[in-house]
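Hello again, I could really use a second opinion on something today. For a while now I've been wondering how a particular protein folds. Please have a think about how the structure follows from the sequence. Here's the protein in full, and shout if anything looks odd to you:

***
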Amino acid sequence: MDVILLERIEKLGQLGEVVRVKDGFARNHLLPRRKAVRATKDARERFETERATLEKENTSRRGDAAAEAGRMRGTKVVIVQQAGDSGQLYGAVRGRDVAAAVTEAGFSVDRKQVVLRTVIKSLGIYSVDVWLHAEEKVEILVNVARSEEEARLQESGVNVAKGDVSPSEEGQPEVEALFEKLPADSDLESGTTLGEINEDGDQPEE
């Protein structure tokens, strides 16, 4: 099907160009989203009449998108998902999940604007493109973790999927200090119990 593009579309053409695309792509994507119209004789004539207006509107939308991209740049979102010990997700993170997280962060984004390089199926931090306009995109970071705490660890460089998180050693110095206070076995009198040793490690005076 031949269509007239009403905006620039990456790898397809510029505003006003007549391009040939598959019928399904035109009917399911370009036409319902008002990104193109059928390239009939009437449509061509009407487009030429309205070209200046369409170009002005497109420039305005691009300016708005550029401003929004400036506000979104550097955005990081966290998506909490269940996963196994290996880091493999019980499911996957898709465009709609990213769009929901970005919207929750204060921006208006539709899932169709989110472009994943691949479906996210494991824990980690991913770079994702959000197209705010046909000529304006912004890169954000998506942190996929099992909890907010794990997300913070991942951001600090810890690979939670490989078990880099060591068990807490909190309280260990106190335990070691207690044993340092204990006298050697040879210094203990027969029948002395641990409860009879004072805080300085000495046996009580008789």
Observations:
- Residues 40 and 46 are 10 Å apart (CA to CA).
- Helices lie at 23-30, 41-72, 95-104, 148-155, 172-181.
- The chain is about 35% helix and 20% strand.
